[in-house]
Amino acid sequence: GHGAGSACGKALGGLPVTTLAYERLTNWAVRCESESDFVNEVLSGQPEPPAYFKHMKRINKLGPPLLGPFREPPQLPDADIVAAVERGATVVDVRATKDVLAGAIPGVLGIPTGGSFTNWAGWLLPYDQPVLLLANDVTRVRAAVRQLAMIGLDDVAGWFGPGAFLAWSRAHGPLAVTESLSAEEVFARAQRGELRVLDVRGTSEYEAGHVPGALHVPLGYLAERAAELPRDKPIALYCGGGTRSRIGVSVLRRAGFDQLLDQGGGFAGHQAAGLPVE
Description:
Layout: H1 20-26, H2 28-31, H3 35-43, H4 53-62, H5 80-86, E1 90-93, H6 97-102, E2 109-110, H7 117-124, E3 131-134, H8 138-150, E4 156-160, H9 163-172, E5 179-181, H10 183-191, E6 196-199, H11 203-208, E7 215-216, H12 222-225, E8 235-238, H13 243-254, E9 260-263, H14 266-272
Parallel strand pairs: 1-2, 1-3, 3-4, 5-9, 6-7, 6-8, 8-9
């Protein structure tokens, strides 16, 4: 009942149908020879449980609020983005990550709509405050609102269009641009002591192999553990392929970091380049 990549368990398969023979060959749980083997396997390498799981348990037990038909949030005046960010409102940029790297408003979380949107929105967004969205068009807004409702984040108070970026620039200057570097350049600069490398993947991924000397904080814990990170040098973030690291950049910008870089291609790019792995 859970899709591949779901945080509900480790190594969940993506096949719509299966057979006992296939599972016997491929399923770690079926290959265990004893109860103790099964217990050890099921407790190791599990993904970190997203913060919204506790809310889901409550909603599943008590029942969700009746929302009625789909309600599209209103588009807000562009100039209102300034006051919203300054008062610490939860604003989510749902554009593609490449667009967020090219120009973002500091203090706004960048979580792109797509397959992992609900997972990271559930990790990083509060359940006791309204949410505001920032998008290039209403299509992404509609998709985001529907996905957020699936995990109980029902209070989307409104959204800002692309004119909000100009309004922010007029009030506070240029948007934040995040440079994307190759794995080779990040590794070389780290070896020279010019920057620090931060791995935002899950613990089991990190333990299976990581960039030598990389700091490690899983993306879901990054906001609460940001104070642990050094500020004396630029930080280059990487994940598996690129999405989580770019969300992580927005999390750290919201926490006041300004020397941030993105390692394009993530750990897969590091391996493909033949660089050392710890």
